[in-house]
Amino acid sequence: MNTLLDVEGLRAGYDDSIVLENISITVNEGEVVALLGANGSGKTTTMRAVTGLIQPFSGKITFDGHDLLAVEPHKRVELGIALCPEGRQVFPNISVEENLFLGSFCKRARPDRRQTLERVYALFPKLAERREQKAGLMSGGEQQMLAVGRALMSKPRMLLLDEPSLGLSPKMVQILFGAIAQVAKSGISILLVEQNAQAAFAVATRGYAIAMGRVTASGTIAELTKSGALQSSFLGSHLPAASA
Amino acid sequence: MSFFWQCLIDSLLLGGLYSLMSIGLSLGFGVTRIINFAHGEMIMFGAYGAYFASILLGVDPLLSLPLVAIVVAVTAAVLFKALIEKVLNAPHINQILLLFGISLALQNVAAILWTGDARSVATPYSLTAFEFETLLVPHGRVIAFVVAIILIIALFCWLRLSELGRATRAVAENGQAATLMGINVSRMYMLSFGINAALGAATGAISSFLLTITPFMGFHMLAKAFAIVVLGGLGSVPGTIIGAFALAFAETWVSYYVPEGNGWAEGVAFIVLLFVLTIRPKGILGQAEAVH
Amino acid sequence: MKLRIALYVLLAVVAVLLPLVAPPIVNNMILRVGSLVMLAISWNLAANAGLISLGHSAFWGLGSYAALLVANKLGWPFFASLVPAMIIGAASAAAIAVITGRLKGIFFAIAMLALSEGLRVIAVMTPDFTGGGAGVFIDQALRPTTQTVAMVTAFCAVACAAIAYLISLTPFHYACRAMRNNESVSEMLGINPLRFRIAVLSLSGAMASLAGGVNIWYSGFLDPMIGFDLHVTILAQIAPILGGIHTLAGPIIGAFATIGLSELTRVLLGEQGVSLLVYGLILVFSILYMPKGIVGTWNSWVEYRSRGASRAKVGATKAAPL
C-alpha cells in the first residue's frame, strides 16, 4: 500500500506552550485512519500542523512524496489534501452554493467544478435544497455537511476531518458518517479526528490513540478496542489493559 | 417648494460622490480589518494626478481617471507590502499610528512637491448646468454622480460574480478558512488595499473639477468618510452606501434650511458620528464587533 | 534612588526659576518644550489605557478658548482663567469616554478626530462667542509678563510629570496595563473599565487643556485654525512615541527631541512641510523598527546587556506591542 501522508516526530504548539511532543502517524492510500483522544490531547493541533495553519517547531510531514512543510499553507490544497476544520468554519454570509464554489477555488479543481458540485449535491441532498441560503443560517448538522462538501469540492486525494460529530444529534451523526463512508468508498483517503469513538469505529480501519501530545497506541480498530489503550488515553491515566 | 426639489437633487448627487469616497475605505476594512488612515491621501493623489494630466497633457479628468486610479492602486499595493503588512497582527495602536504616519508623510511630500497652492481643473462642464424652471443642476455634478454610480456597480458586480471577488468576500468572513480553500490571503489583502486606493483615486479624479485641490484636502474627506462608515456600520459595504446618502441628505438639508447652513453643514458629519457612537455604535448595517 | 529624586527635583526647580534670568529666546523654548511635555504626558496617559487620541488638539483648543473667554468676557486674570480651562478639558474628555463607553480603541480614535474637527467648525460658526474665523485677541490689559507665563508653563509641566509619576506608583498603573491588553481580564480583576476610562481621560484632557490655556496667554491671539490645529494633534503623538510610550521619561525626552528636531529641520531646511514630513517618517520608522521609542529601546538594550544571553524564540514571533 502506498503511504500518502507521513508525519514523523512532529513537535508543535502555540507561542510558548508545547502541545505536541512527538507525533508520528501514517495514512496509506485508501485508508480511513482515526485519531482518538480526549480534549486537549493534541488532535486538532496535529491537523492544523498538517494543513499549515500553524508551523511546527520540529518534525517532518510528507504528503505524496512532497515535503509539506516547504509548501505554503494556501498551496497545500493544490497538492490534494483538504481540511474540514473543527467547528465547521463555513462562510456565514455567503450562500451554500458559493461556499461550495469557494471550495473549488484552487486551479486543479476549477475545470470540472460543476460536475463535482453535482456529486456533492448527490451525496448531501439537503445542501441542494438549501443552495441559495446563507450558510450561517443553517443548522449545525447542515453546516457540517457543507463543510465536508466544500472540502470535497477541491477534489482531494486525502480528506482531513476534525471533529465532524461535534454538537450534532445522534441522527445527524449517523447521516454524516454514512456519507463519510461513501466518500471513503470512492477512494479518497481519510484522516479522522474524533472524540466520538463509536462513530469513528463505524468508518475507520486503523487508529491512533493520542494523549498529552504523544501517540500512546496504534493499530487496527479491533486491536485498539481490545487492548484498552483507548480507555487510558481518554481517561488520561495509564491503567493496565482492562478486560472489557 | 422648488427649494425642496433642489435640495433633493443636490443631496442625491452629493450622495453618489460620498458613496464613492467611502466605499473603498469600507471594503479595505472589511477584508484587512485595518482602518486606512491614509485613505484621504489616496483621494488627494488621485486629484493631483488628474490635475497634472489635464495641465501637462491636456487630458480630461474623466479620461485620465482609469490610469490615475491604476497608478495610485499599484503604489498603494507596494506600500502595503513594504510597510503595512508588518502590522497586520500587531496591536491596534501600532496599526493606527503607522497609517497615520504614512498619511502625514504623504501629505507633506505633496506639499513640498506642489506647494500648498489651491488648484482646480477647468473642464467644459465644470461651469455649465441643466436648467429646469428654477432648478439648477450643474453638469459637473451629474457627471461625477454617474461615474461614481458606475464604479460602485462595477465593484458590486466584481464582488458578486468574479472568482477573486468571491474570494475577497470569503477572506473578509474568515481568513483561516479561506487559506484552507487555497486562497492566498496575504495577496488578497494587498488586492483589497489596492482597490481601496483605486476607488479613492477615482474619487480624487472626479473631485478635481468639483473642489479645490490642496495637499491637505484628504484629511477632511477622511474624517467624513469615517463618519459615513461608522454610520453605515463598520464592515458592511452596502451599509456604507446608505450612510453616504444619509450624510449627504443631512448636510444638504442643513445647508439649505438652517441659517448660515453652509458653514454648519461641514460639522454635520461629526455630530452624526458622535451621535451614532452614543446610540448605536454598530451603525445601520454593521457586522464588525464594536465592543471588546 | 534618593540621589536620583533629588536630582530631578533640582532640575525641576531650575526649570521653573530659569525664566527669571533667561533671555526671551530661552523663554520661548521653555514655553514650547513645556507645552509639549504637558501634551505628551497627557497623550501618553490615555495611550497607557489603550486609548489612542487622534484629536488631542480638541482639548488644547477648548482650554485656549475657555481661558480666553473668561478673560475677555468676565475679566478673569491669568491664574484664575486656567481653572475653567482644566475643567472643560476634563469634562469633554469624560463625555467622550462615556460616549465611546465600552467600544474598541478604534472608535475612540475616530471620535477624537471627529471632536477636534467638529469643534473647529463650531468655533468658526459662532463668531459672537468665539470671534469666529477671524479670531480674537486676548484682553491686553490682563496679560502677564512672558517670564510669568514661562514659569507657569514650566511649573505645570513639572506638575504633570509628578502626577504621572505618582500614578505609576499606584495600582492604577497595573490597571492600565490590564486594560490595554485585555479588557475582560481587567474586569475579572475588579477594575471597572468604564469608570476607569473616564478617570484616565479626564485627567488627560485636563492636562492638555491646561497647556492650551496657558499658551493663549503667551500667544495672545486665537482663531479656530490655531486652536484646533492638526499640528498640535500630531505633536502630541510624536513626542511620546519618539520618546517611548508607556514609560515615564518617554514623553519628556520625546518632547525635547521633537522640538529639537523641529528646530534642526527649520534651520537646515527652512520649510514647515519638511518637518511635518520628518514627523511622519519618524512615526512610520518608530512603529516598524523601534516601537518602544528612545527610552524604551534604551531600557531594553540595557536589560539585554545585563542579561548577557539571548532568549530562544519558541513559535511564531509577535510584533512588540507598544
Brief account:
The complex is a heterotrimer of chains A (244), B (292) and C (322). Chain B is built from eleven helices and two strands. With 292 residues, chain B is mostly helical.
Account of the protein in words:
The complex is a heterotrimer of chains A (244), B (292) and C (322). By secondary structure, chain A is of the alpha/beta class. Chain A contains 10 helices and 10 strands. Chain A has a single domain, classed as 3-Layer(aba) Sandwich (Rossmann fold). Chain A has helices spanning 43-51, 73-79, 96-103, 113-123, 125-129, 140-152, 170-185, 197-203, 221-227, 229-235, and strands at residues 3-14, 17-28, 32-36, 58-63, 66-67, 81-84, 158-162, 189-194, 206-211, 214-220. In chain A, strands 6-7-8-3-9-10 form a 6-stranded mixed beta sheet, sandwiched between helices. In chain A, strands 2-1-4-5 form a 4-stranded antiparallel beta sheet, with helices on one face. The model of chain A is unreliable at 237-244 (pLDDT under 50). Chain B has 292 residues and is an all-alpha fold. Chain B has a domain at 21-215. In chain B, 73% of the residues lie in helices and 3% in strands. Chain B has helices at 2-32, 39-57, 61-82, 92-114, 139-161, 163-173, 175-180, 185-207, 217-232, 237-257, 261-279, and strands spanning 129-132, 135-138. Chain B has a two-stranded antiparallel ribbon with strand order 1-2. The longest helix of chain B has 31 residues, at 2-32. The model of chain B has no long low-confidence stretch (mean pLDDT 89). Mean pLDDT of chain C is 82; it is low at 309-322. Chain C has helices spanning 2-17, 24-48, 57-74, 78-100, 105-125, 127-130, 146-169, 172-181, 183-188, 193-219, 224-227, 230-243, 249-269, 272-289, 293-307; strands spanning 136-137, 221-222. By secondary structure, chain C is mainly α. Chain C is built from 15 helices and 2 strands. Chain A binds chain B through residues 51-53, 72-75, 77-78, 82-83, 85, 89-94, 98, 101-103, 105-106, 150-151, 154, and chain B through 163, 166-167, 169-170, 173-174, 176-185, 287.
